[in-house]
Amino acid sequence: MQQLNMSQLYWDVYGYYEHDWKSVSLRGKAGAKMRNQQLEQGTKDTYEEYQVYAEPSANVTVKAWKFNVAARISTIFRKYKDRSDTRLVLMPHVSASCRLSPTWEASLSYNYDWQPADIKTISVLPVYVSQTQKLQGTGDTEQTMMHLGSASLSYRSAATGWFTGISFSYLTNMQEIIYQSAVQQNVYVRTATDYRKNRHVATLYGNLGKSFVWSSLSVTLNGSYSVGDYFLLMKNVPEKQKNRNGNVHVEMSLRPATWLSVEGKSGCSFSLVDGVADYWSFEHQLKLFFTPGNWLMGWTNDFYHSNDRSVSTAFFSDVQLSYHTNSIEVVLECTNLFGTKSFERRYMTRNLKIHTLNTLRQREILARVIFNI
Question: Which residues, at least 6 apart from 276, have a Cβ–Cβ distance to it below 8 Å?
Fold first, then answer.
C-alpha cells in the first residue's frame, strides 16, 4: 500500500483582443500563468513553473482561399529541486484551405507544440499510477515536443447526398523519454532512463457516405491505417520497433419520427505483426433516444469481442431519463445496467503482448437536478 499526498496550485490570468477588417480577422491573447505541484511520500518533491505568453493570430480570406497564421510565444521558468531553467519557446501554427469547386475542398496545416512535463513525469519518487503500475521519473525538468503536418481532400454534394474524404497526417514526437520496464512483486515498474529518441507516426484516413431524405438517414464507411516507429529498451540498448494498426467501421443514424432517433456503429480494429493481422477486436454500439415533449430517454449499448478466445466479451448498457423546462432539468441515470464486472483488452507489437484487465464498478444510479438562474 502506498500513501501519497499530491497538491497543485494553478492560475492563469490573460487579456483578449480581436478586430475584423474586410477579409482580415486579427486575434490576440496575452497573459501569465503559474503552476506549483507537490508530491509527498516520506520526503517532499516540489515543482514550480511560471509562464508569460502572447498568442497573436490572423485569418485572411482571398477569394476561394482561407489562410490562418498563429503562434504562441512563451517565456517559461521551471524549477525542480536544485535544477532550474528558463526558455523562450515559439509554437507556430499555419493552415490553408481552398474551395476548389462547389463540392470539392482541400486543406493543408502544420503545427508545433511544446509543453512542460508535470511532476508525475519528472519526480524521482516512485509513484503508483494504478494498482499494478509504478512510475519513476527523470529527476530533471522535461518537456514534450511535437511536429504535426496534415493534408486533406473532401467532397460533398447536397444534390446527391454523397460525401467522401481522404486525409494524411505525419506526427513526430521529439526526444521522448525511454523507460526501463520490469515486474517487481507483481507490480509493473517503469523507470526513466537517460535515453531520448524521436517517435514517428503516419496515418491515412478515408470515409465514404451518403445521406438520404427518408428519415434523415445517413450511412458512412470509415477507415484508417497508421504506420509508426518507436524505441524500446532491449538489454539496456534502445531498439527501433514498428507499429502497424488499422480500423474499419460503419456508422448509421436516422430519425424515423420527431420523437425517436437511432444511432449505430459497428467495426473492427487490427494490429499487424510481421505483415500478418494476428489480433482483431470488434466493437458494436447502438443508441436510442426518445424525446416526447419535454422528456428525454436515452439507452446506450456497447458490445466488445475479439478473435482471442482467452479474452472475454463485454457488454455495457446505460440508461438516462430526464425532464426539462426553461429553468430546471431533472436527470436520472443508471450506468452499467447489467452489472458487467470486468473489461479485457489485448494489444500486440513485435516484442510486446499487453493484456489489460479493468475491474469495473457495479450498477450505479445517479440523480441530478440542474437549475438555470
Answer: none
Could you tell me what percentage of the chain is helix, strand and coil, using 3-state DSSP and rounding each to the nearest 5?
A: 0, 75, 20
Using CA atoms of 357, 358, 361, 362 in order, give the dihedral in degrees to the nearest 10: -30
With residue 119 as reference, give the H or E element that holds it.
helix 119-122
What is the rounded end-to-end Cα distance, in angstroms, of the chain?
A: 46
Q: 12-71, pLDDT tens digit by residue?
A: 999 999 999 889 999 999 999 999 998 887 788 899 999 999 999 999 999 999 999 999
| Reported pTM | 0.83
Nearest of 343, 345, 335 to residue 360 by alpha carbon: 343
Q: What residue type is 127 in one-letter code?
A: V
Q: What are the residues whose beta carbons fall under 8 Å from the beta carbon of 372, sequence distance 6 or more?
A: 326, 327, 328, 329
Contact 346, 353 (CB under 8 A): yes
> Do 270 and 247 form a contact (C-beta atoms < 8 A)?
yes
Cite the DSSP H helix spans in 314-365. Answer: none
pLDDT tens per residue across span 139-159: 888 999 999 999 999 999 999
Going by pLDDT thresholds of 50, 70 and 90, the confidence category of residue 301 is: very high
3-state secondary structure 126-168: CEECCCCEEEECCCCCCEEEEEEEEEEEEEECCCCCEEEEEEE
Which residues make Cβ contacts (< 8 Å) with residue 165, sequence separation at least 6? 152, 153, 154, 155, 206, 207
Q: 3-state class of 352 per DSSP?
A: coil
